[in-house]
Amino acid sequence: MEVIDVADRSSGSTVKPWIRWQDWVAVVLGAYLILATLWTSTNGAAMSAMIVLGALLVIASVWSLAIPGSMTSEYSHMLLGVLLFISPWVLGYTELMGASWTSWIVGVLAVIAGAAALPEANAAHRGVAGQH
Questions:
Q1: Residue 99 burial (CB count, 10 A)
Q2: Quick one: the chain helix, strand, coil %, rounded to 5?
Q3: Do the beta carbons of residue 95 and residue 115 sit within 8 Å?
């Protein structure tokens, strides 16, 4: 008679929350973006974009850390990175070089971090989906 350990199978996935380095990078990027308004020359549009998009990036990153199988949170990182990258042109603060470069660099890094986490999130997602 074979004994099956139900507790091992009920975990859903072998991916543990709060350990994925890509999501920690995105948390740091979001926090840096918010704090950069303290030492970077900004106007109202630049400051608003940096604070709001930085806070949303932190929230999406914590969501990814807490639920490693969430594909939506990784796509959120990438979408926020794209929005951040285009925000100097859309919101008209390209003349503020510090704010623009901060937005461009953090935006690109957010897209890279989200894309780098996708394979692990996909594997965790399939592990969770396979348990239903």
A1: 25
A2: 75, 0, 25
A3: no
